[in-house]
Amino acid sequence: MSQIIYTPKNSSYSTILNSFESNLRITSDFKPSIIFTPIDESQIQAAIHCSKKHGLQIRIRSGGHDYEGLSYISETPFVIIDLRNLTSISIDTENKTAWIQAGATLGEVYYRIAEKSKTLAFVAGVCPTVGVGGHFSGGGYGMMSRKFGTAADNIIDAKLIDANGRIQDRESMGENLFWAIRGGGGTSFGLIISWKVKLLDIPVKVTVFNVTRTLEQNAAQLIYKWQHIADKVDDNLLLRLFLRSSESPFRRG
Q1: What's the whole-model pTM score?
Q2: What is the pLDDT of residues 151-169, one digit of tens each?
Q3: CB of 85 within 8 A of CB of 39?
Q4: How far is Cα 194 from Cα 104, in angstroms, rounded to an integer?
Q5: Rounded distance, CA 191 to CA 81, Å?
Q6: Rounded to whole angstroms, how far apart are CA atoms 253 and 247?
């Protein structure tokens, strides 16, 4: 249990707590009383029942890219259920579907799909360390969204543990709740264990290019033009704009 439950007295507590991205401008008087890192569904159910019994709020963390602090701070005593150990990804190329546990990252998802097929993909974000739990439940905009919609548009089933510890799927939770967790934030309605997604057909080769302009090279006029055509070009073409200082170390390859 020492590898599943971390309290402030545990030497690894701070490492686990601070192991993901966080917004340093967001502070709280409270740190989690306990951090759970479950390895299966039954341990999540136990954590929910225990937290309810002791009157503790629950915060759920997937990849940790949460700049509002919703997954790691609270104004009242709380626990974190950290899904870092729930990273299973099962690809079914014949039916063009995949089951993805909520602790997996986008990079892991893309890698596992590419292992199985060069002509299947999934639409989601570009940062490989973002966790699918929060990303999918928040919508999940990505580079192929103009053609295929968001990640949430391509979710066909889910497994969720509700506040009473019951495991629900699309059929048992009903279409209203299934609709809500795809864009309304998964932790608002329960703890998402895994998503079943529809994989998408893509060509073997795609074209990627960058155009760099400074203000002296009429960048402002180019941005103005981009604003007027970005929503009108072919759905197979995504035009993405980055604005940065010429002295910034930020680069896009």
Answers
A1: 0.89
A2: 999 999 999 999 999 999 9
A3: yes
A4: 9
A5: 9
A6: 16
